């Protein structure tokens, strides 16, 4: 698998990655900004995400971003994570220059006024309620981050720590945030489509070339100390079933052990033959659903196991059953057959991902963000280098009770489940 | 900061678009007998996708929930292999197999790397033709489904959505029946066996094979398909069909479902419209887009961008053979549902009173053409479009007609359609949220 792409870096620091794809009639533009919720002030959380909303409020020369996007037949959206903010656009391929004009204007000259801020604060508050507060277990990640981290900014979610931080955001604070982080040297531009590099480079230079770099603005993130004992939190309420979230600190996405950690969770819960699904959902039904996954953050992240208890199963029994599975993989590791199974599934997913131009553009940007875009093509090799012994050793090192943060939801009628 | 030599205020020229053309799955010439097979030999990656669809969905089941549980149980072992063995083999070769039961169709999809087709294809057929439906797995699935039901039933969207179905559909219609934990508990292995017999006996099974190697592998697959799904077996069985003629227009109403601890209000609204096969459907689809089908829609502009009442509001068309359902959905700030409903009705009414401006119509048309182009770009997208149409016995002509409608329909015609179909006083509304 080789993703043929070309890279150019503009004098102002903007990185351009172009993958020529002559099989498509659609253009895809992905713009990744090196700012996420980890860059926020602990007393002003949710700003990166709020700012993402404000970037759709128009810019100096393009009063309505959406109207122009729609006029060119484009679909667009954005998302914010702990590490980055990502904007993307797909459109009929011949409209690339319009897309570049559109994106460059809001990146360089956004128009953010009090009315736009007031409206988007209301919208984000409703998003906060809809996704995190108004559904069972919706606040799990707000709670789990707060429990698993003590000093690192991953301790709050991208939506923010609390609604009041969003409600109290001022125009001055938001504009200062933009000046600090929205600069071309903090941006990676990925393009996929039937394009020649010289033409694309000319257009990118024309529209992005005048944006001014910000220089080195990376904050230093407080290193999270190694946990020294189990951390537990229980929430009691009108929950429909007991639920369990177990989190273990793990290396960051760019670490050489990341792939081994990812394979721990694949062996545990990828596919219907995985250990947790087959063992604890189907054969010995302790859970109605149970998953293991890694957060994949740039800085040391979390390996998480989460699920809802099956009816009639107590949370203690369910948790003990998970520990048994974790001990098994820590003591005996996976066998080569299990790893091969996961590797074939990963390869199939990577190949499927390549069928979508936007996915390719986004992945190029992401790997450039991590280190270098060339690593995208080395991903399957990185997984294939992992040995059962390494998975076992890492599992033994990571999956210890004294390193865990455990969040449990307990229904008021706990007796019904015990 | 701004470079004076660059005229940012002047948008670069929108390029003229070439006429939209596309490849389309072709009937496999060697198979003029059952089942119908089409092939799309396209794609750059070494992937193969095989879809099987049956003209039989859960609306036609004899025992409530049996079709949905039956399709879920297809991946839980066969007569030859336990669930653990079957799933382990599929995972081992990186195969992705999905069984889905919808109202009027049931489908099975296999996505696999070319080189693993020989290993995964027999597993795919085996699951469909020789499922074991073992009691142990069935009980686990039922327990999980019940637990899932309990979790979902705490969500406002679930409560409002269920209420809406009961308001829209008459009591005899299967869509009006709401599931409860007791319904899951009542399902037996015999019910699944019966649902499976009905699935395989339903006429109208068809198959697509898609990928860069599709034409090379299809011949080898046909024999397996015909052996597995023999014509004799099909003809000897009689599928049960429910004659779901046009459903009557529901009475307009607004019903509220209280939930004490809710922080927001979930709003669901609907109108019953003609089916996808109706000549007016293209215009209605465009109308729904203007109302709430894209980010710049009237409802998004009004409720989100102007009033800040919601994170999102949308309108869409859900198609069935004999009707379509235009729905509006939003999660709203508590206490704002009255204002939101007033604005929804206002925007519906406005579309029937005022012509779309040239600018707005131009934007919507361009947006929809872009969507159509994206929806026909790449083999996996194309095969999705094929099934979108095949499900209603429609073909490629439908896309040409839609494109023609996009080019030719006038704001006056859209206004006329709106006045006929977007009548605010006919809206059926369900809301769920905190008591006043």
Please give a structural write-up.
The complex is a heterodimer of chains A (418) and B (436). Helices cover 42% and strands 19% of the residues of chain A. Chain A has 16 helices and 11 strands. Chain A has helices at residues 47-54, 65-71, 96-108, 114-133, 140-148, 163-167, 171-181, 197-208, 258-269, 275-283, 315-332, 336-353, 357-370, 379-384, 388-398, 414-417; strands at 6-9, 15-20, 26-33, 75-80, 85-92, 187-193, 231-237, 243-250, 287-294, 301-309, 405-411. In chain A, the strands form 2 sheets. Chain A has a 6-stranded mixed sheet, with helices on both faces. In chain A, 54% of the residues are buried. By secondary structure, chain B is α+β, with helices and mostly antiparallel strands. Chain B has 2 domains: 26-236, Metalloenzyme, LuxS/M16 peptidase-like (Cytochrome Bc1 Complex, Chain A, domain 1, 2-Layer Sandwich); 253-433, Metalloenzyme, LuxS/M16 peptidase-like (Cytochrome Bc1 Complex, Chain A, domain 1). Chain B is 44% helix and 17% strand. The N and C termini of chain B lie far apart (54 Å). Chains A and B meet through helix 2, strand 5, helix 3, helix 4 and helix 10 of A and helix 2, strand 5, helix 4, helix 11 and strand 10 of B.
């Amino acid at each position: 698998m080789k993703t043929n792409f070309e890279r150019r870096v503009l004098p102002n620091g903007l990185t351009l990655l172009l993958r020529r794809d002559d099989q498509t009639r659609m253009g895809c533009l992905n713009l990744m900004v090196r700012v996420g919720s980890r860059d926020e002030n602990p007393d002003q959380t949710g700003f990166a995400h709020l700012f993402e909303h404000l970037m759709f409020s128009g810019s100096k020369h393009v009063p309505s971003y959406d109207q122009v996007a729609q006029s060119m037949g484009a679909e667009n959206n954005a998302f914010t994570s702990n590490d980055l903010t990502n904007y993307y656009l797909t459109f009929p391929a011949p409209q690339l220059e319009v897309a570049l004009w559109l994106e460059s204007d809001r990146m360089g000259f956004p128009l953010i006024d009090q009315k736009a801020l007031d409206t988007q604060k209301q919208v984000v508050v409703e998003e906060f309620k809809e996704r995190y507060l108004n559904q069972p277990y919706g606040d799990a990640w707000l709670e789990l981050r707060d429990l698993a981290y003590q000093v690192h900014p991953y301790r709050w979610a991208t939506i923010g720590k609390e609604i009041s931080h969003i409600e109290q955001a001022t125009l001055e604070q938001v504009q200062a945030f933009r000046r600090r982080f929205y600069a071309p040297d903090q941006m990676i531009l990925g393009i996929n489509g039937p394009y020649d590099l010289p033409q694309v480079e000319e257009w990118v230079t024309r529209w992005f070339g005048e944006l001014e770099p910000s220089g080195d603005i990376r904050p230093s993130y407080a290193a999270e100390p190694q946990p020294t004992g189990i951390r537990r939190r229980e929430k009691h309420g009108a929950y429909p079933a007991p639920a369990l979230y177990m989190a273990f600190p793990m290396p960051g996405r760019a670490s050489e052990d990341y792939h081994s950690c990812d394979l721990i969770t694949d062996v545990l819960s990828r596919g219907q033959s995985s250990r947790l699904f087959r063992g604890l959902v189907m054969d010995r039904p302790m859970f109605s659903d149970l998953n293991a996954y890694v957060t994949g953050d740039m800085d040391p992240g979390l390996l998480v196991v989460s699920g809802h208890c099956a009816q009639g199963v107590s949370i203690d029994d369910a948790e003990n059953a998970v520990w048994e599975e974790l001990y098994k993989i820590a003591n005996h590791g996976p066998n080569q057959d299990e790893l091969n199974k996961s590797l074939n599934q990963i390869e199939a997913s990577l190949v499927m991902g390549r069928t979508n131009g936007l996915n390719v553009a986004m992945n190029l940007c992401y790997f450039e963000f991590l280190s270098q875009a060339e690593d995208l093509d080395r991903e399957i090799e990185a997984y294939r280098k992992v040995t059962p012994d390494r998975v076992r050793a890492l599992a033994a090192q990571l999956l210890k009770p004294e390193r865990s943060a455990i969040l449990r939801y307990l229904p008021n009628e706990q007796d019904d489940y015990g | 900061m701004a470079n004076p030599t660059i005229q940012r205020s002047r948008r670069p020229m929108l390029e003229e678009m070439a006429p939209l053309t596309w490849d389309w799955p072709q009937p496999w010439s060697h198979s003029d007998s059952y089942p119908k097979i089409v092939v799309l030999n396209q794609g750059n990656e070494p992937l193969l996708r095989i879809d099987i669809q049956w003209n039989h969905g859960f609306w036609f089941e004899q025992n409530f929930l049996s079709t949905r549980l039956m399709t879920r149980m297809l991946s839980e072992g066969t007569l030859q292999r336990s669930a653990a063995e079957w799933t382990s083999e599929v995972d081992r070769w990186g195969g992705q197999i999905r069984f889905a039961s919808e109202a009027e169709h049931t489908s099975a999809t296999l996505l696999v790397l070319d080189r693993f087709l020989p290993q995964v294809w027999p597993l795919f057929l085996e699951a469909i033709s020789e499922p074991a439906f073992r009691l142990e797995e069935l009980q686990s699935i039922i327990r999980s489904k019940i637990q899932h039901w309990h979790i979902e039933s705490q969500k406002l969207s679930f409560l409002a959505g269920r209420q809406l179905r009961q308001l829209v559909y008459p009591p005899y219609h299967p869509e009006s029946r709401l599931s409860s934990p007791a319904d899951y508990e009542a399902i037996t292995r015999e019910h699944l066996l019966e649902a499976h017999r009905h699935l395989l006996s339903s006429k109208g099974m068809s198959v697509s094979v898609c990928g860069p190697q599709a034409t090379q592998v299809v011949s080898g697959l046909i024999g397996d398909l015909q052996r597995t799904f023999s014509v004799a077996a099909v003809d000897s069985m009689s599928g049960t069909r429910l004659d779901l003629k046009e459903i009557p227009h529901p009475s307009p109403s607004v019903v509220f479902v209280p939930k004490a601890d809710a922080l927001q209000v979930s709003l669901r609204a609907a109108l019953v419209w003609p089916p996808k096969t109706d000549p007016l459907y293209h215009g209605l689809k465009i109308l729904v887009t203007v109302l709430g089908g894209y980010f710049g829609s009237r409802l998004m502009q009004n409720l989100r961008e102007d009033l800040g009442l919601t994170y999102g509001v949308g309108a869409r068309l859900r198609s069935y053979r004999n009707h379509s359902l235009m729905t509006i959905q939003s999660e709203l700030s508590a206490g704002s549902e009255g204002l939101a409903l007033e604005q929804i009705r206002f925007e519906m009414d406005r579309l029937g009173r005022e012509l779309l401006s040239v600018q707005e119509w131009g934007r919507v048309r361009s947006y929809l053409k872009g969507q159509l182009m994206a929806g026909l770009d790449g083999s996996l997208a194309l095969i999705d479009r094929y099934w979108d149409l095949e499900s209603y016995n429609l073909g490629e002509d439908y896309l040409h007609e839609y494109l023609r409608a996009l080019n030719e329909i006038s704001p006056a015609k859209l206004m006329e359609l709106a006045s006929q179909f977007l009548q605010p006083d006919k809206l059926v509304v369900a809301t769920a949220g905190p008591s006043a």
